[in-house]
């Protein structure tokens, strides 16, 4: 075991010691009102270098200056260095960024940066239940809750807050959007005091808590007989209860609400609009500067598979677009990146281009529910970059809306109480990338992956390159052996891992591929369900016409015959076969590449990732064979290249 | 509410009061050593008539006589009546039979019968776990166990024992064949004393308990490091432990063992044969007259769907047939009726015709795991009659082996702690029929259903006829809308209720239909997997040739093209469509027939059965549409009659 091995710990994630770096003798200078930041800076340098050699010759100055509120500047001076922030928060971000660039191996004299975040709200959503289980969690149990109580390791919370602040996260919602009768009580005593105590632990790191509230709280904790948002008593309940909440936690960011969705109550049950529901709650937190994040994941989850008129991806637009302009200023509509549900490949939700007078948040999912569950390697940064650079309106990319209409980037956490936070250690990269990308959406996946690899592993150029390449390719590989071309789903119901081609085909969830012996997919064009009409021109026309539809989304928008000729001349069927054979082969490559890293990556990480890559290979082969067999059994047409398809 | 309504209770099952009967004034005469039977007779008459009018004019004499051990005779005398039994047990059975015929409305003077059971062991197997849950239970929780302890209502146990004795059951295994670490302890203290106490409650009714034991008991409760049946220590463990058991329960019937099956340990893990395993345990109980029921449900439940060589129905024969003659005399091989797993339609297990020097039990399943789960109406009597009258060897029907090679009829219980015992009240008929048929396999389903209806309901001729017809047709209806022609499965994995055509198609369980665009089924003929070769001639040839294979088993034995012409000229595909359209329509008829019985059937039963018939109709339509759509999507061929098939 070499030196690096002894100091590396998966628990440190991207805040690893780097004793291999050349320390610099220096003194830190800061005014006493930024003591906490001063200390974070000092602790950070000690972590990196193993200690600080004090020297009056070189001063690292920390100061609050006239910059953007959360912004910072990093400036080398003669015989010194200055980290300035537009506020204490900005200064803290500056310190973390400075430490990160040092950790990446840059020399202090060359680190120069001026930066401010593009969106105000950079938020992590935990889907933690208070019984300790995490919905769609793949890294153990909650580190906030157990047995319907707060139950946490204080040191872990501090470390978590530091990790999050170091990548610019400034808001965290600790409880599942699927609020139950227990977690509904978080906005009332006795749980409220515990929540306030936890909020205090995050506060020094510039992180404000959010709480998922139950739309039916007026009944559940208020003892009322209705939750009708236009009922006087209900409005009064929200006001009074919010006053209690803000009295305990004056800087609470606000509430997150999942209403009228998947068996949750909501305003539509009372004949009210989504705006009625959101505004009533928003009015209650407005006096305290609070915000309501109102999720747009509203659709009919009791669809009959025989019903071909209802088209689930159209639902959010139908519910929310007509209400554009009707939401209060402190309401932020939280919209999943795609119109369906965190699939490997979806178009961007048409709500982003169609809401003009509404505050929006884009919601990503770092938890790999449909993308390999932290067993299969999957770099979400690659996908997010594609999404953010998608054209959503006359020449405008989605990312151009960030900081304008889109005020927030939120994401479902991929963390749990596993020692390495994320189950698969390489999945730490997704968490890292989310925070950094929310800060600066111009960063590419390649840059983000490169940053993360450099700060995490003390390995050589070959080691870094290999991990970078594995991550960069991972999303494409996973997509190719699962359900490519935007067809989505085809996963095992409930677990959402592994293939089950017809698994959702006759269910209530509105996710159908309707594969016949001749064709597959739903016609979502203007001649079909009309989903494409939810996009502005020229996107509408682009998606509508099979010739101009981006090929990777072919089966999201079109019903296509298996003998359809793809752009390169292959039939759709042959494309499906090729994609699955090739994807499974590349999963082998991933394992092989990783095996080349033995002794270049700390043992613990090497072995645990290797185990997962082996499971991924099994999964990839299962996908390959089930998908190919499924289509062979529909068509009777063999692979052109004669590869094995089971009968 | 009329008189009958007031005295009927679902809890009484087939032991209902029948105050409408003409009571007969009589006195009962019996020697003092049959006091319990005397009392059962007296209680039975009081139940039936509402009371007994004593009269010295007419004597009902109970006596033990020189008859078959468990046999009885019922004989009208001048001014009296005699019930004689070949033993106390026989006498008890005579009393119950006498009461049952009275309850059916026959006049005492005309009740004449001489009867003895055809098999020695008539056994109910409960799949009750000690935590209180019942595996594949559809009528509530266990009425023996709760929270890993014995926990029962004494009165309910007595009533259950009486119900079972009244239909001739003489053995009951109270714990699940899937023995876990808790229930493994039933053969040791402290649980053993509780078991003994329960055994005492069944004893007066002529019922001996059986206990499911864990093959690894030598390790789990004996503290040994092996369960190898040829290990001296293991043999010693079984002997010593069995001595302890029989000291507490001298009349324990014996042990039931599921070994080498679905993740249970077994002799094959130690390189031993099934006979080695069974004989070691049997030797331990032999000195006490105990018996070992050794299940033959041994197969590879970790099959790869890509593997077309392994054919699950062949497994039991392969494991056990070569061992014919190797099992000790007190071993009884417990063989499921079919080679697969309690499907709606299977051939008879080839083990019955091929084991010549081995004691056998035939195992049925009264619990409706694959046959509607006590929601959908399903008369098992109809299926059992078909099975028992199936030719298994040169002109011999299966039932001719009963009492010869087949010494026992056993069945998985359909009971639970629901007030009506069986969830669906009409499912009581299956429990009733099993006991009666185990006693007398010559009874037809029609006779058994008629008996049950008469003793259970105090209704008019129209009422009786309607229920009888519903039950008689029910098996055919269920089969037609689910997975007919012996194809089996196509159910939702895990739950085994409702359609999921490809649900088991890519699983490990060895149950595949391999439907392509042209054909469906596994070729199990001599040209295929060779399963048919496990049958003797002429059955082998009959099943082997598609022309002579019974049509209802077509897809069990053959892989058949959709354009294959059935006997009546329809294509297989059209048969599938017709079967499902017709089955769903008949499910409507069932509901309609039942609705005609309002006020003819007690309200409680009327409504609860009606609710189930409505659910059955939904289920039938779901099956119809999913199956038809599945095959339409494979073939592109529409229904000839133009009925609606969803695309």
What does this structure look like?
Chains A, B: Keywords: Hydrolase. Chains A, B: This is Alpha-glucuronidase. Chains A, B: It holds the Pfam family Glyco_hydro_67C. The structure is a homodimer of 647-residue chains. The first copy, chain A, is α/β, with parallel strands linked by helices. Chain A folds into three domains: 113 residues, Chitobiase/beta-hexosaminidase domain 2-like (Chitobiase, domain 2), CATH 3.30.379; 336 residues, Alpha-Beta Barrel (TIM Barrel); 153 residues, Alpha-Beta Complex (Alpha-d-glucuronidase, C-terminal Domain). Helix content of chain A is 35%, strand content 13%. Chain A contains 18 helices and 19 strands. An eight-stranded parallel barrel of chain A has the order 6-9-10-11-12-13-14-17. In chain A, strand 15 and strand 16 form a beta hairpin. In chain A, helix 2 packs parallel to helix 3. The two termini of chain A are 50 Å apart. At the A-B interface, helix 18 of A face helix 18 of B.
What percent strand of chain A? Answer: 5-15%
Span of the ends, CA to CA of chain A: 50 Å
Helix content of chain A: 25-40%
CATH architecture of the largest domain in chain A: Alpha-Beta Barrel
Task: Write the CATH fold name of the largest domain in chain A.
Answer: TIM Barrel
The overall pLDDT of chain A, averaged over residues, is 97
Low-confidence stretches of chain A: none
Whole-angstrom Rg of chain A: 25 Å
State the strand order across the main sheet of chain A: 6-9-10-11-12-13-14-17
Oligomer: homodimer
């Amino acid at each position: 075991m070499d030196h690096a091995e002894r100091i590396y710990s998966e628990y440190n994630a991207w805040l690893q010691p780097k004793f291999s770096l050349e320390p610099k003798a220096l003194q830190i200078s800061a005014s006493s009102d930024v003591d906490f930041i001063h200390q974070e800076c000092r602790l950070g340098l000690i972590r990196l270098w193993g200690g600080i050699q004090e020297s009056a010759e070189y001063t690292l100055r920390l100061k609050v200056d006239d910059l953007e509120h959360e912004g910072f500047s990093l400036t080398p001076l003669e015989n010194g260095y200055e980290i300035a922030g537009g506020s204490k928060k900005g200064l803290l971000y500056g310190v973390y960024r400075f430490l990160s660039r040092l950790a990446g191996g840059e020399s202090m004299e060359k680190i120069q940066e001026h930066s401010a975040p593009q969106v105000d709200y950079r938020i992590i959503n935990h889907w933690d239940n208070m019984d300790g289980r995490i919905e769609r969690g793949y890294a153990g149990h909650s580190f906030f809750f157990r047995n319907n109580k707060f139950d946490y390791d204080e040191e872990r919370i501090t470390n978590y807050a530091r990790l999050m602040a170091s990548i610019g996260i400034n808001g965290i919602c600790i409880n599942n959007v699927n609020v139950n009768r227990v977690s509904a009580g978080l906005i009332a005593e006795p749980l409220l005091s515990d929540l306030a105590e936890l909020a205090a632990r995050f506060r020094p790191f510039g992180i404000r808590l959010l709480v998922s509230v139950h739309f039916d709280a007026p009944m559940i904790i208020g003892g009322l007989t209705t939750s009708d948002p236009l009922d006087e008593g209900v409005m009064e309940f929200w006001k009074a209860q919010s006053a209690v909440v803000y009295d305990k936690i004056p800087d609470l960011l606000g509430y997150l609400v999942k209403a009228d969705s998947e068996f949750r109550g909501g305003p539509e049950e009372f004949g009210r609009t989504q705006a009625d529901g959101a505004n009533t709650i928003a009015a209650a937190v407005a006096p305290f500067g609070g915000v309501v994040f109102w999720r747009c994941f509203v659709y009919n989850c009791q669809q009959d598979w025989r019903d071909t008129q209802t088209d689930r991806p159209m639902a959010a637009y139908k519910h929310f677009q007509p209400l554009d302009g009707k939401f209060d200023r402190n309401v932020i509509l939280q919209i999943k990146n795609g119109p369906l549900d965190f699939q490997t490949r979806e178009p961007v939700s048409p709500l982003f281009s169609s809401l003009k007078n509404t505050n929006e948040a884009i919601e990503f999912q770092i938890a790999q529910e449909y993308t390999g569950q932290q067993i299969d390697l999957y770099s979400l940064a690659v996908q997010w970059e594609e999404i953010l650079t998608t054209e959503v309106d006359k020449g405008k990319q989605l990312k151009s809306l960030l900081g304008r209409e889109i005020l927030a980037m939120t994401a479902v956490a991929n963390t749990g109480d596993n020692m390495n936070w994320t189950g698969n250690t390489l999945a730490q990269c997704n968490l890292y990338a989310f925070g950094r990308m929310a800060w600066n959406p111009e960063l590419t996946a390649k840059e983000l992956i490169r940053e993360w690899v450099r700060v995490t592993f003390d390995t050589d150029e070959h080691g870094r390159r290999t991990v970078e390449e594995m991550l960069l390719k991972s999303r494409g590989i996973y997509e190719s052996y699962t359900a490519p071309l935007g067809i989505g789903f085809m996963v095992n119901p409930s677990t959402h891992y592994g293939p089950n081609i017809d698994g959702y085909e006759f269910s209530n969830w509105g996710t159908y591929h309707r594969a016949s012996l001749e064709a597959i997919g739903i016609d979502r064009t203007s001649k079909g369900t009309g989903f494409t009409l939810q996009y502005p021109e020229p996107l509408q026309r682009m998606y509508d016409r099979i010739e101009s539809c981006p090929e990777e989304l072919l089966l999201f928008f079109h019903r296509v015959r298996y003998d359809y000729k793809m752009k390169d001349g292959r039939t759709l069927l042959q494309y499906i076969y090729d994609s699955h054979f090739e994807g499974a082969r590349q999963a082998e490559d991933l394992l092989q590449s990783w095996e080349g890293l033995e002794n270049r990556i700390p043992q613990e990480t090497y072995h645990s990732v290797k185990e997962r890559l082996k499971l991924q290979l099994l999964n990839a082969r299962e996908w390959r064979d089930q998908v190919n067999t499924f289509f062979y059994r529909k068509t009777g047409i063999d692979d052109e290249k004669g590869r094995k398809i089971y009968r």
